[in-house]
Amino acid sequence: MVATNLKAETMKLMEQRSGIEPEMNVIIENLCRPGGPGLNVFIILQGFPRADIDIPAVRAERHRLAELRNDHKDITEKINQNIQVLHSARLTSTTIEDTGNHFNFMSFLLFALIKLVNELCCLFLVF
């Protein structure tokens, strides 16, 4: 029951992340278009802001991009945690089932039986 809820939550988080990514891409495309302000600074070499851009609009877009990046990072971390919990739950359930009344055959399986060792240190194996 918990795994089903966790899986549904993870799928919902993946949908949220997929919804954030196009908005981030649109903002990045607007900022990085030819002649655009870019993602970093919009100051010319003399230290003054560029006259051809709307500074408040650029700051608002960059602020929104920073919010979306933080949300994307948080959602991705939560998805990662949920996936780890889901996989650890599956691993635990399979190891409990496997270790029930069975024993590990690999520890008792003979690899080879030494038949003869001669002077040249060659082993003749019987399988």
UniProtKB/TrEMBL annotation:
Pfam families: Nas2_N (PF18265). GO terms for biological process: proteasome regulatory particle assembly. InterPro entries: Nas2_N (IPR040815), PSMD9 (IPR035269). GO terms for cellular component: cytoplasm; nucleus. Residues 12-88 form the Nas2 N-terminal domain. This is Nas2 N-terminal domain-containing protein. It comes from Coffea canephora.
